[in-house]
Amino acid sequence: MDKILLGHGSGGTLMHRLIDEITAPSFDMIELNDSATVNLPHSRLAFTTDSYVVSPIFFPGGNIGDLAVNGTINDLAVVGAVPLFLSVGFILEEGLKIDTLKEIISTMSKSAKEAGVSIITGDTKVVDKGKGDGIYINTSGIGYIPDGIDLGIHKVKSGDKVIVSDMIGRHGIAVLAERNGLSFEPPVISDTTSLNKLTASILDIKGAIKMMRDPTRGGVATTLKEIALQSRLNIEIDERLLPIPPAVNGACELLGLDPLYVANEGLLIAIVDSKKANEVIEVMRRQKISKNATIIGEVLEPQKNKDSLVIMNTTIGGRRVIDMLTGEQLTRIC
Amino acid sequence: MDKILLGHGSGGTLMHRLIDEITAPSFDMIELNDSATVNLPHSRLAFTTDSYVVSPIFFPGGNIGDLAVNGTINDLAVVGAVPLFLSVGFILEEGLKIDTLKEIISTMSKSAKEAGVSIITGDTKVVDKGKGDGIYINTSGIGYIPDGIDLGIHKVKSGDKVIVSDMIGRHGIAVLAERNGLSFEPPVISDTTSLNKLTASILDIKGAIKMMRDPTRGGVATTLKEIALQSRLNIEIDERLLPIPPAVNGACELLGLDPLYVANEGLLIAIVDSKKANEVIEVMRRQKISKNATIIGEVLEPQKNKDSLVIMNTTIGGRRVIDMLTGEQLTRIC
Prior knowledge:
Largest sheet of chain A: 7 strands, mixed
Strand order of the largest sheet of chain A: 9-11-8-12-10-13-14
CATH architecture of the largest domain in chain A: Alpha-Beta Complex
Number of helices of chain A: 8
Oligomer: homodimer
Low-confidence stretches of chain A: none
CATH superfamily of the largest domain in chain A: PurM-like C-terminal domain
Largest interface: A-B, 80 and 80 residues
Order of helices and strands of chain A: HEEEEHEHEEEHHEHEHEHEEE
Mean pLDDT of chain A: 90
Shape of chain A: globular
Distance between the termini of chain A: 24 Å
Structural class of chain A: alpha+beta
Strand content of chain A: 15-25%
Number of domains of chain A: 2
CATH topology of the largest domain in chain A: Phosphoribosyl-aminoimidazole Synthetase, Chain A, domain 2
Number of strands of chain A: 14
Radius of gyration of chain A: 19 Å
Helix content of chain A: 25-40%
């Protein structure tokens, strides 16, 4: 493989290989996680970056602007940080309508205010017509990790419960429908939203949360597989418990997609102490963005001398091994 | 003006208007400066972002990779910060050669090590062939501002000296020559380099440095005009003192460019207390990247009831008003 493929950007195995083989060894990426966390003399910071290249730039439920703000906030939130500051870097294509830019910026401003973060520094570059696609946005973010927060793969143990905060697969299908001029009834709306208030509320439950992730590119399946690999434990989920909107299911059937691999932009996966799982679910369900929170499975010891797996007990009584997304299922989804 | 023009990315008046009218009012950009600085409970941080879209991606003296690392380090360094951590966000065009990416990443790694900063978090997106131009890179950076550092426009006073750290106009001409298949004898090599060791060394001279900037897009002229406007003071420079390599002068004549507006990527402009200016020059000249450091002019009171101006006393004895770059002189230069 000597050329970049679209699949290198899809969040699956190709991207993982690119990171593992080329990017990570060259830099100082401490954890291959959504945010890096660093010790400053007196406070523990989280620092993250994401570029957004979603196509089309407007879709049901949002646009590239709130996606860029919420996505970076969420990368901070899932490592347990309180997001504080964002930067924004625009790469604009010559000919982009100023009104389009204004609308996107206004959405960004609104989303940042809603989440309680400040966009404090920025940069704008313009590329020739035909060398971009309207607008690409990078947001980077910093937050601080309150004392006492200790999350991470090292906390995950056999018996922990796997929680998803709400309905699966909405963002990817909303973007794909818009891109292809499809409409579903009822329409599928992107779940793009900031998760920092949700994460703060469940981190308040003492000893409950082991680790969190937001399953964007690559979907729930890829994130669960990453957690299984990193923890060297199995994850077993139950297909009947997966909260998938009927419209997403229908669209996926039509398009030959698997909702488990479809991107989410306002969804939280939490690995939770089994004794606290119901309390976490209760706290989540009180909040609008997580009113369908569900325990979808649990963490288990892998079979002796076997690799760690994600296994789904299917509706029809079978057992299916869930792997990472390979190649491109949905490109330019965020 | 309802569409984005290439000139919106050139660092001059168009970009300033875009920032002033659209971007800054929507966000929380505290200072329209290279880095935002923020108070955390126990330490003062600097935070900055820049996207790099230089074309071509390889040029004499560097490539988009060291440009992206050095540029963001320099944005931190000029606000007096000690750069600590960088993020990197790649936007790759489908079909980019993996070897090209590897070479760029290896350059980034080397530049970061040389400057003593760590690249700790990253993101990769891929766009379809024809929707990018090989590779775009965003780097964001955080650093801390040591106790006692107080720089900024509020410190600039009439009588202060204006210092440039080395030869002017090299990066822009190097890129332009490469883009257009021109070669000059001797060749013009980009000045891309990190300035953080240089800035640290002159900040050690007590009370010397009032403020610093790195004159990238828009060149020395645009940066001086920004300083004049923000300080409401005049700046008067002497054309005979400007350190311009003969090859840059020759190339500019040939291409109809003014070296004062050509981008630099390893140049420092410092506004310095007049009593300490010679000491600053001495310290600078001891370092390889600033061995041609020169006092090029000084800060003066503006004429009563007049706007603040940048004025150049020309070689032929005239006085020329220097304004910001308007529209595009050199696009995609960084």
